[in-house]
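Today's session is about reading a structure prediction critically. Students often jump straight to the picture, but the first step is always the sequence itself: look for stretches that repeat, for charged clusters, for runs of hydrophobic residues. Only then move on to the predicted structure, which in these notes is written as discrete structure tokens rather than atom positions. Here is the chain we will use throughout the hour.
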Amino acid sequence: MNPYFRKAIVTVLALVVVTFMTTGFASAEEVTRVFLFAGQSNMVGSDAHPERIDDYPDFKGAGEPQSDVLFSYLLGNGDEFSNGWVPLKPLQSFGPEGTFARRVRQHAQFPIAIIKSAVGGTTVAFDWNPDAPDKGQKLYPRTLKLVRESLAELDKRGVRYQFEAVMWHQGENDMLDRNLYKQYADGLTKLIALLRPDLKAPALKWYIGEVSEKGIWGMDHRSNLGILRQQQEQLLKADPLLRWVPTSHLAFEVMGSGQPHYHFGTQGQLQMGEAFAAAYLRDIGKPLAETDRSFKNGLPIAKPARVRLFVLAGQRNMEGEDSYVSEIAQQPGYEFLANDQKDVLFRYSLGGGVKASTDWEPLGPVDYLGNFGPELSFGARLRKSLDAKEGVAIVKFTHSGAQGPDWFPNGSAEPHRNLYPKLISFVRSAQEDLQQRGFECSLEGIFWHTGENDTYFGPYSQNSAKWMKQLIDQFRADVKQPDVPWFISEQHKNAPWRNIEPVNAALNEMARNDPRVTIIKTSALPHARLHFGTKGTLLLGEEMAQAYFKSNQSR
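Below is the predicted structure for this chain, in token form.
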């Protein structure tokens, strides 16, 4: 090659590299979307550890630096800062920004930049209040300064940008103070109203992440959390540029004592970033693709066959937290469960309705956090052993963030958390649909896993069996089947929660007084750190099916 030509190529490549390193992007002509991530400890990422990211199958590699995403941050008391733009990568503690950026960049062509300002333990009433100069940490002027300086640096680089949105997760500390929580809507409204003109972004959208009900506040400060939720709903109704991002269905860390945590932790932060991204992408007309799994040519059952209907309901383990679809293929004898079982009907409402089917689907893994519950092995075992001429249908209604009072037949004090009316409606709808299609439908049983958070919390654990009996009695009355059997699986002896033994004992005592209640032992099953995990969940489904067959034999 001509040496002058070679030198010219090297010079051009060097200029390209310098340009990329300077701007962060291959072309300064593209409009960069700038996002502000702000809030308190769950936005900082407390108890999220970058070295644990690869422990979660669906997030392997998510901790790698993202050189095509610019990142500017100022955290905590100010001792953790970027001092300008740097490539995005997880910090010692990380929040939702990493998986948000990764997901958005997978589905949108424009470059993005993230500014992060978050401090744990802060309130809207004081710390984020622009009008409270003598109280709090003065985070509004600090954040405004960070944003303006970061944008000024983009101007110097010649990067064209638009300020796109604020991703907000905060509210815990306002909620804990009864003198503050009823002022939350006014305080956040003021903050939003000032930031928009200060950033010259009058149409700036805010995405408000839910304060998870799966944490400790969902129990010992339940009523306070309910007030905060009402305040947030007031905000959402008043401002069409606000968006709600549910989080109570996401993974949440547990303390070493078995106490529900204050923070999402590693897995929850990874999932929360994707939840923010899904909400944003949907808003800009690029929603994440969803596969239509419903049957296209009618149900695969010959009329007028009987369809046996089974209901699976409950919380974290029944939903399938920490059981990974990607690991099914590694479980000998269960590999086929990674595929649809077209001869078993399936309807579901997961995460309190965050993910729900619209019609009957073949039983199989649902695109929901990469998790699955005991329904896969349970359904396969039923189909293998029941009369092939009869249909098998499974209805799954779960919310991993739920607790005992959410299932009260008479409703909880927090209306948005009432699950029982939704449960009974979901089951009735399935029954009626099958009957309208010309099938005889028999409700064969309800399978329930004991509430995990309820076990730890004293006031809940002491009432767990009593509440369970109330739920069973009301359900039987509402479906007009006083003898419909219930199958309740125990909490595993290796689960992290306290009070496991007395809760399990009380449930067994209840079952001794009701011959149509069966307690499923789980102590012999595998168990991971917090939940049954992939193998344990598959075996739990087997135990559930075995309990059903044994119960039928004893009738």
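Discussion point for the tutorial: Residues 306-553 form a domain with the Rossmann fold fold (CATH 3.40.50.1110).
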